[in-house]
Amino acid sequence: MNPNQTPDLNDPSLIASLHSKTEAARQLLRWTASEFAPAALANSLGVEDMVLTDLVMKEKLQIEIFSLDTGRLPTETYDLMQRLRRHYGLTLTLYYPRHDLVESFTRVHGINGFYESVELRKACCHARKVEPLQRALAGKKAWITGLRAEQSETRSGLPAQQFDASNGLEKFNPLADWSEREIWAYIRSNDVPYNRLHDKGYPSIGCAPCTRAVEAGEHVRAGRWWWENSESRECGLHVARN
Length: 242
Prior knowledge:
It is a single chain. With 242 residues, the protein is an alpha/beta fold. The protein has a single domain (3-200), classed as Rossmann fold, CATH 3.40.50.620. The protein is built from 6 helices and 6 strands, in the order αβαβαβααβββα. Helix 2 links the parallel strand 1 and strand 2. Helix 1 packs across helix 6. It is globular. The termini are far apart. The model has no long low-confidence stretch (mean pLDDT 92).
């Protein structure tokens, strides 16, 4: 198990930083709900989004919580959806791919054609994730993500707030400056349900065929689209589109 998943909750410096960052995230979420309604939280069922879900639910904020069901999620991810119902009484709003786009892709390229090139993988991501996200954000003034700056090279310098020109709304990243250790300290100290794949070496979780466990010393997103160069490892949800 990743040592960050079992942080020392008696470490004064960790508890102090966690308290400060939790309060900052809570205030940002409150402000977003108040000033940018309707707002929505995109929950990928990874550990960061579970921190945000816990904060939104405890604060009883008027923020829709949705998830993208690509049709190829791991069983553990679906299990977590059900656990959210029991723990919070929360039924996620689910958005699915358009069947015609998925059928078109698979008929031409095969069910696992995304392994053949970066272009085909991004085309699959577009059909299963990007297009559903566009529908999920339609009519919203803001969306909230669990992105963190240290997650990958493409996310360094990530701000807490930015304008998403591709979707025409404000985008908030309340955990932008959080460390993985602080994320897990929040999870452990608040008894937040999380995806069991994290216990099996998956720090980052996406579709089942595109995600693997990472080895000791590997980057936290090394298991996403592991057959590609690190520079291309984004699905398109957080990449500006022309």
